[in-house]
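Lab manual, section 2.4: Encoding a predicted structure.

Procedure: take the sequence of the chain (506 residues), apply the prediction step described in section 2.3, and record the output as structure tokens. A sample record is shown.
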Amino acid sequence: MVGRYIYKSDSKAWLFITLFLLFMSFTSINLYSQESQENSFFDNVSNHLKKGNWLFSAEYSINMSLTDYSSSTTSSGFRGIAKFILPVNDRFNYGLGAFFGFGSLTGIDLALRNDPRGFPDQFNTSIQYFGAGIELNYKVNSNIYPYLFFSLTELYFQPKDVFGNLLPNNAMGSLIYTPHALEPGIEIGARYFITDYLAVNTSLTYYFFPNDYLDDLKKAASNDKYASINIGLSYAPFQKGSGFKDSDSDGIEDVKDACPGTPEDVKVDNFGCPVDTDNDGVPDYLDKCPETLPRVKVDLDGCPLDSDKDEVPDYLDKCPNTLSGLKVDSAGCPLDYDKDGVPDYLDKCPDTPPGSNVDSTGCAAKIDSSKTKEVPEKDNENVRIIPPSELKSVVLYTDTYFGPDKEKLLPKAYTLLDILANTMKAYPESKWNISGYTDSTGTDNKNLALSKKAAQTVADYLIGKGVNPGMLEVVGYGEKNPVFSNDFPEGRALNRRVEIKYMPGK
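Recorded output:
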């Protein structure tokens, strides 16, 4: 054969690597969602990189080859390992490791006796290797740590017969194959700490060899492989021991404590930082609302934000900009005792009978049957004017103020927009932005069109009230710029909105 042998890819090896990456990604996301704080988790990890445990191991290996030779015999090997273990939470730990080793692999196949090609019935391959990998271990208790170790190893091999002679293909050198290969491996094992510093460990390692020449013989369809049983001792020089110092008495050694100075009797995590059960960034011992829902913004006391101080938290508040001092309902909107769409603080007729047709002051309106438009052509003179600097912005939630097609406003929107229209006409030089938004359901194009339609409906109403169109900038943003999470119905309802904002300086 002329030229170098090109390794045949091992489909099982690539499958293993793919599954490993998927597994590690899922584990990282799961641990993050369950154990970490939104921001402080990564701060703690970065602080903890210099505070993890070093682990040094020396092991004896019993090697078994799985090659084209029909029978595998056992042979010996040795390896040394250095790992850096980084705590993730109270149970799981990640580790990065590097290792080297040497030994041999052997095999017997009596069918090869007197083989005309020169292959003997026994082979012996010396091996030397080094590599690196990542470990995931689980803390059963303070003594027992089962683990998985995923590695990539650079292996050097040299197939010979029992007399030390190179086997036929090996003797031809690079014309057939290169006597080294990068191979993936998987290891399952466990450590048992017999003292604070010393552990006994045992493991089984399986290597996926990338070609079929570990025994120098290419016969079967599958590539060569080998495995080893490893037994040894591990030494952890920085484990808790006689030199253990814990200045804040939280059970975490000072050299590993990412939050030194924790108050006495405060429960801490594996980094020595106060536990935050609801992951809102406020530790439990300071949290006055310890069961806040995920992703809800909180104040310094760990309670959901209430920007307008109406005692309805922002994530539930459908009227988040309520004027100070107004009484509100459970949705955070100004009370409307007679349910006529005009809030009590603007209602001059607060006892209007149910179903009455009212004007913007909440009083019975005179109906002109000759007019079919949904809004009166003439402004109500009793609607007060609020300066733009005070009004700043108005938010109309589409579920509350719009009809199903978003092309029609409901009567309860008239009062707010009448106030806004009077303000705009009283300040003809002012500029206003009308932005429409949707939640994340539906396609991007559909959401964009729907948000623009809702914003234009508001603009048309204001223009119909006499507002100069040149004062208005109408934009649809679709599902962009959500004010809350789209993961549950309450958040999606708050994201479906039209915002009218005063633009000072324009």
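Check your result against the sample. The helical segments are 11-35, 40-48, 168-171, 388-391, 398-401, 414-426, 444-464, 489-495.
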